[in-house]
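Could you show me just one protein sequence together with its fold in token form as a worked example?
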Amino acid sequence: MFRLKQTATIEKHLNLKHSVLRISSTEIITCTRKDKVLDAVGILARGIKRIPVTDGKNELKGVLTPVNVLDYLGAGKLYNHFRNFGLNASVGRIMFKNVKTIDRKSIVKDALECFLHNGQGFYPVVDNKKIVAIISEWDIIKHIRKKTGILVDDVMSKKIITAKSRWPVNEVAEMMVKGLFKKLPVVEENILIGMITPLDIIHYLKENRKLHKLRTEKTEIKKLIRKSFALKTGADIYDAVRVMKISGTDAIPVIEDERIKGLITRTDIIEALVTIK
């Protein structure tokens, strides 16, 4: 496992010796593994990005994400179960089970190491397998409240996947399920016109009563995309944190002369704040 050797930048903003519970979110919306997928979709459609799944007695059994749902509705291999069980299937059938957790006795530095090492953007905080809180990358970076001297151009993801506004919903959903990037900038002639996320697709399907039609849904995503905030290449990562707070998103397009140059994510910011030897 990676060990943090130099943490000077992040420690200017956050005490890494504090209890992880001090910065975690304890107001958690959960569901049980016996709840129906349709009910869970209703929760996600409200903008909830992940749902811890319990056994009904608060013991963590898995996590349900928008990508799990798109996979099940027709964008991935889980669709085989959908054909048999439909929206009345139990959440336990489609949830992500191998969820890494953090013990409630951990400190912030432990959580930071997990974010850097495991590639998971959130961790349920548990006490004897029972979930008591969730810590996300946002809980770390929201403590950046001043300029850092680190430019987004130096740390952003430059090899990104974009979508075209005329592409159909079903194909874009499949890209999200099978690809590395889940939040896609939408461009025309390399000029940014918006963003689309798994939650946008779920909300559209639910509002238009098309949850059972994703596999054949050919509506162009231009009807779903939302206008996106953007940053210029010379912006500080503090500016990215401010925009993330305002917009509620965890990925911000970076542009130069209106043309997209990259995408800065919460993961990029955490990696920028910590030097690993």
